[in-house]
TrEMBL record, chain A:
GO terms for molecular function: ATP binding; ATP hydrolysis activity. The lineage of its organism: Bacteria, Pseudomonadati, Pseudomonadota, Alphaproteobacteria, Rhodobacterales. Its main location: membrane. This is Galactose/methyl galactoside import ATP-binding protein MglA. Residues 6-237, 253-498 form the ABC transporter domain. It comes from Ruegeria atlantica. It is an enzyme of class 3 (hydrolase). It is found in: Cell membrane.
Automatic annotation (TrEMBL), chain B:
It comes from the Bacteria. InterPro entries: ABC_transp_permease (IPR001851). Its main location: membrane. This is Urea ABC transporter, permease protein UrtB. It comes from Ruegeria atlantica. One of its GO terms (molecular function) is transmembrane transporter activity. The keyword rRNA-binding does not apply. Keywords: Cell membrane, Membrane, Transmembrane, Transmembrane helix. GO terms for cellular component: plasma membrane. The keyword Transmembrane helix applies. It is found in: Cell membrane.
Length: 505, 306
């Protein structure tokens, strides 16, 4: 048997209170695309940080081509041919492409030579990129190209990719996969981290599955069904949310001709958005992050006010009303950012329950707060949505992402909204919790609530929504029924490859 | 009122002197802020620099040793800020304010025996040939060396930030410290060096007031120049040459309004006294209307949590 490129043996890393990796061992062969699968919190990120030298293992060894390998810092890992594309891009918005790439290299050539090499490598791999553009102006797909080219310029032996497709349109994913296949054919090994099972089945030669920090199994993805892999990840049988056939009522929310500038500098203005949602209908809004999702949520929640007639609730103009007035009417929202937007991180769950629940649940009396009722409301959310926490007096910050997400969604769902707008309801939530959140949204719709679900997870939108529209540079496509919609059509609604050229390699 | 008494050549020459303390403090703070740290202790570091430089040059008789001591004094005080913000991860705004208050009090204590003492004079450099040119000579080429050092520092900071790898790494740390850390750069180390540089520059600026501009020691003699320097960095959009422009504008109007007061212009003194602040801010606000914005990590505490 040939020596594997990288061999991990019994890697263990513990943090106070949690063992992130427990005796993890596996091998990555030369020219192999190896998938690392696992739920959020399964220890994938910690594991790759150890390979990349950002974290030191407590015990265990790594062998690179049979030689002991223990990088004290990323610089050393890079010198040994390990390169990494991060999940949250580690780019500097205010700097240009060439400067960003120079920062990731040990001995960068002069800027002019570097720019020429960037052009050369980007052409070779079908990833056109202008070295002098400011990174802050690039699309997500182009930003990822910057990271990939930064890695390729170092001629890596092992390329680590942490959830590379979470921000890409389907067309951009195809371009990326062509590049990765070309790299594989040149002998580069790739460690590919994802929880998107279909992608792994198309791309990867071998998969290692982590659960709660342990290696729970390996498989050949092409020969294993997505469902089997998912169950290995979760460790139990998956509940698919059930959607009961239902009739839609009259129009609950009517948005017409809505145009607003973005409140933030790098935001996207909404341009002439039209949509209607009927009672009992779930409208899924897809699109790559940064195409106006946050602004759409702001406009619907009342954080950004508009012309009164642009938004109508049951025929009544509400465009000028603020969030509290809209809540009173029954238009509720749950924003994407859990810490800081949906919840105040350092306040207790009881206080957070009060923040959005006071109007509809009657938790205030002439400006005085009813703490006893608030506490029981918080407890109701905790028990109804299986939020794992010692009690409602704990700070929101102390909850894990998934648990807090269950809390903030549950808080709105239990207030019996007439219209519910959620942004990324299952972002960073494990599969079991995500399934229960989706089920709660569908149950709410079955009771006649109009739901708008903004999400970047297309599988999620296909699973729960009745109609689908996509945001692209602040414009909303015309909503279409989800039944029979193909991935290609969705991709085109999302703006195709965003003007990026398809790789010809 | 006799405006004819104002000598334009002397006026321009003295505006450069008036602007130099501000310029030195601002260029130091600009580097600190480019590294993503907001140090509001400029005033405190200046005044400590002023008394350190004053005391050492009186004791040794050498203004050069005085300026070196001032730079060291400012840097040592900024070490306190380093300890608070980079190791104890304290809030930068509160730590900076504490630094200013501490510096003002501590300098008063250090300076008790130096009130009324006259420091040794540094003397001006008369650049051969150039300083003999009429009008331009006295304006540009007959100054003390520290004034030229200030201008050289602006040029050096500009070139370093723009053309060198060190400058690129410094900007990267200020722009996105998490990403810089992920690439393996030592965020804390780079920030400490930047803060020390800022402290040394502020110290030099303070000593310029006590050794050259005034020259004597009185309590609280920096009189808010440190705060103007902070504002200048923001309004100059973190650009070195714009900071120089702002400093000269401020210095120029300060000198001009003093001359106008002396000439007895029929404008109330209070309006004249506030004019440098108003005009500098107005001009820089107009200039800063372009797109360039603050370093994205400015004022945020970095903690390497893996």
């Amino acid at each position: 048997m040939t020596t594997p490129l990288l061999s991990l043996q019994g890697l263990t890393k513990a943090y106070p209170g949690v063992v992130a990796n427990d005796q993890v061992s596996f091998d990555i062969g030369e020219g192999e695309v190896h998938a690392l699968l696992g739920e959020n919190g399964a220890g994938k990120s910690t594991l790759v940080k150890m390979i990349y030298g950002l974290v030191k293992p407590d015990s265990g060894t790594m062998l690179l081509r049979g030689q002991a390998f223990a990088p004290p810092e990323p610089r050393a890992a890079r010198a040994d041919g390990i390169a990494m594309v991060f999940q949250h891009f580690s780019l500097f918005d205010a700097l240009n492409v060439a400067e960003n790439i120079a920062l990731g290299m040990e001995n960068p050539p002069a800027m002019g030579d570097l720019a020429a090499r960037i052009r050369e490598v980007s052409e070779t791999y079908g990833l056109p990129l202008d070295p002098y553009r400011t990174v802050g102006d690039l699309s997500a797909g182009e930003r990822q190209r910057v990271e990939i080219i930064r890695c390729l310029l170092q001629d890596p032996k092992l390329l680590i990719m942490d959830e590379p497709t979470s921000v890409l349109t389907p067309q951009e994913v195809d371009i990326l996969f062509e590049t990765l296949n070309k790299l594989r054919s040149e002998g580069t090994s790739i460690l590919y981290i994802s929880h998107k099972l279909e992608e792994i089945r198309t791309l990867c030669d071998h998969a290692t599955i982590l659960r709660l920090g342990k290696n729970v199994g390996e498989c050949v993805p092409a020969e294993t069904s997505a469902r089997d892999m998912a169950e290995m990840m979760v460790g139990s049988t998956l509940q698919t949310p059930e959607r009961s056939g239902r009739e839609f009522g009259e129009v609950a929310l009517d948005v017409s001709g809505l145009s607003v500038p973005s409140p933030s500098e790098f935001g996207t203005a909404l341009k002439n958005v039209h949509m209607t949602v009927r009672k009992g209908e779930v409208l899924g809004v897809g699109g790559v992050a940064g195409n106006g999702q946050d602004e759409l949520l702001g406009v619907l929640s009342g954080e950004i006010t508009t012309a009164p007639d642009a938004i109508k609730f049951n025929g009544q103009p509400i465009g000028k009303l603020g969030p509290t007035a809209r809540r009173k009417l029954g238009v509720l929202t749950a924003p994407e950012e859990r810490l800081g937007h949906a919840a105040a991180p350092d306040m207790s769950l009881t206080e957070n329950a009060l923040l959005t629940g006071s109007v509809r649940e009657g938790l205030e009396n002439n400006g005085f707060l009813k703490w006893a009722e608030t506490k029981s409301f918080a407890e109701k959310i905790i028990s109804a949505f299986d939020v794992r926490t010692p009690g409602p007096e704990n700070a929101a910050r102390s909850l894990s992402g998934g648990n807090l997400q269950k809390f903030v969604i549950g808080r709105e769902v239990l207030q019996n909204p007439d219209v519910l707008v959620v942004n990324q309801p299952t972002w960073g939530v494990d599969a079991a919790a995500a399934a229960s959140i989706r089920q709660a949204i569908l149950d709410l719709a079955a009771k006649g609530t109009a739901v708008i679900c903004i999400s970047q997870d297309l599988d999620e939108l296909m699973e729960i929504s009745d109609s689908f529209a996509a945001l692209n540079e602040g414009r909303l496509s015309a909503p279409r029924t989800t039944t029979g919609l193909t991935v290609d059509e969705i991709g085109l609604m999302m703006g195709g490859a965003h003007g990026m050229e398809v790789a010809h390699v | 009122m006799d405006l004819g008494e104002i000598n334009p050549v002397l006026l321009v020459a003295s505006l450069m002197v008036a602007a130099t303390p501000l310029l030195l403090a601002a260029i130091g703070e600009l580097v600190v802020e480019k590294a993503g740290v907001l140090n509001l202790g400029v005033e405190g570091m200046m005044i400590v620099g002023a008394i350190s430089g004053f005391a050492i040059s009186v004791e040794t008789g050498s203004p050069w040793l005085g300026f070196i001591a001032a730079a060291i004094g400012g840097a040592v005080l900024s070490l306190l800020f380093v300890l608070l913000t980079q190791f104890a991860l304290a809030n930068q705004v509160a730590s900076g304010l504490a630094l200013t208050l501490f510096g003002l009090g501590f300098s008063a204590l250090m300076g008790q025996s130096y009130v009324g003492v006259k420091p040794p004079s540094m003397g001006d450099i008369h650049i051969p040939l150039l300083s003999d040119i009429p009008v331009i000579g006295p304006i540009l080429f007959q100054h003390d060396p520290i004034l030229y050092l200030g201008i050289a520092l602006v040029a050096a900071v500009w070139a370093t930030l723009r053309y060198t790898r060190v400058g690129l790494i410094l900007r990267a740390v200020g722009e996105n410290h998490d990403a810089a850390h992920a690439l393996g750069y030592k965020v804390i180390k780079i920030r400490i060096l930047a803060i020390l540089f800022g402290g040394a520059c502020a110290g030099l600026g303070g000593a310029y007031i006590s050794l050259i501009r005034v020259p004597q020691w009185t309590e609280g003699m920096t009189a808010g120049v440190g705060w103007i320097a902070l504002a200048l960095v923001v309004f100059a959009s973190w650009k070195p040459w714009r900071a120089l422009l702002g400093a000269y504008l401020f210095g120029g109007i300060t000198v001009l309004q003093l001359n106008l007061q002396a000439a007895g212009v029929a404008i109330p003194v209070e309006y004249l006294a506030m004019s440098p602040y108003i005009i500098t801010i107005l001009v820089l606000v107009i200039l800063s209307a372009d797109k360039s914005s603050a370093p994205a990590s400015l004022g945020r505490t970095f903690h390497a949590s893996h």
